[in-house]
Amino acid sequence: MKCPLDWIADDYDVFCLTLAKGLSGRELLLRLSCEEADMFIPEDEESALQFVWEGMENYDTWGAARAGEVGEWAFSLELASTWGSISERLEAASTGTDVISCSAAGPLCYVEYWQNGTCVMRCDMSAPESRAEEGGIDPDRFVGEMQRVGFFAEHACSHRRLGLSLLHEITGVSLGEAQTMLGLTARIPAIHHGPEGLPRGTFGPVPEGAVTVSQVGARRGPRKLNIRPDTHAAIRSTTSPVPHPQARSRTAS
């Protein structure tokens, strides 16, 4: 069964969708470390796409996030970064409420559910049967929802689609691209550029040799930020082994 969030997985190689119950989109962005001064409403689709592209160019320091509300849930959507999935930020975002996030970077995809500052369930989509080893306090809380959307099936759909389907099954949130295009937009700081700071003994946010969206963008698209008809296609076609925050934290440990 098709999920109303499938377009994100189908069109974007790198993304992060974070939902928070009972907050506004602005409140969620602030909890994810965005600054009020960096928030704005794009004038049109062209300027909205321009901002995403600029975030790709500056991936090492920030990404572009779009926010708003759907029913009782606020959303933050990144279409070329995964900075909203950093654990310290999900902890802050979930204070006094529930937060669920699905993030993907190349072959990596994670779903996390946080409640009042505590990780309830974290699932590496390549090994959902091993979720008890991922640190959540109640890894089986959503087994029923997982089974309903096709987890553990012999011919399951892609990890990315499954992750987004689980978000939809748990929250009921449906989100279309047109609905997000002109939403509240902000710069979301890259890892170690937010309140989590730099890890001890390091001198920068990106491990040596890591390939980032900005580097791939330089190869695939124009360096100038003048918008072109193919800009949206360039954003969608960016397929890079972008370091995922969860992968980085495991390497560090």
From TrEMBL:
Spell out the residue ranges making up region: Disordered: 230-253
Q: Name one Pfam family in it.
A: DUF6461
Q: The organism sits in which domain of life?
A: Bacteria
Q: What is this protein called?
A: DUF6461 domain-containing protein
**Species for this entry:** Streptomyces orinoci
